[in-house]
Amino acid sequence: MVPVLISTAAPVVISGEQRVNLAKSKVNQSYSQLDQDHRKRKAESRLDESPHPTGLLGIRIKEEPVSDEDPMETSIPENLNNGLVNGIHLEDSLDSINGHMPVPERVTEELRAFVGATFKKQYVLTLNELKRLFNLHLAGLPPGNLLFSGISDKTLQDMVLDVGCKQIMVPFPPQTTALPDEQKVFALWEAGDVYDQHRQILLEIFSKNYRVRRNIIQNRLAREYGEDLDKQEVDKVLKDCCVSQGGMWYLKGTVQQSTS
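RESULT FIELD:
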């Protein structure tokens, strides 16, 4: 029997100092891993506790820091402003929102109503007399009425024409003392009654004559209506449009009434 030779490697001898260093290395590796895990968990924890607002779907909204040197825009875009100023609706815009007529249009309608009603009563007015009647009308209105916003002479004249009146170019005499507003004569051209054409003939006469005798007016109307013309018809149109002084007839407001 052949004896088997077993080769045994010589045992590795590790000194005490090497053991200590090896242990330190393993500890450092473990500590480094633990430190990384701890930092990661801490960072995730901070994100979960962040006060940043989130949307309805849990989406975190980014917030930009506000700088004292970059003031917030507080003006209201024109297309979103619907008349809101400092929380108060302007009257024009509020009317539009509520479906009412805006203030400028309401002023126009009130002025039109006044001018139309006045000429249906007076038929003929100078600008001066119309302004006087308008001021009397204002005096009877409650404070804050829209017509107190200020009505210019031009606006008033434009409205006179707008309601269907015409300016009668009365040929005032050169020596007249009438003021410019007294020389602007307006007449309602169509009142919608049977005397419209009578008045139009009379007004045509006064566009060529500053003052006229009654028989001139009566003869002209008689040519138009013949035997159908009634004295009361002549009286009616003269009363509507004219005043008499010294046996002559004048359009209303074109002559100073005698005080004697």
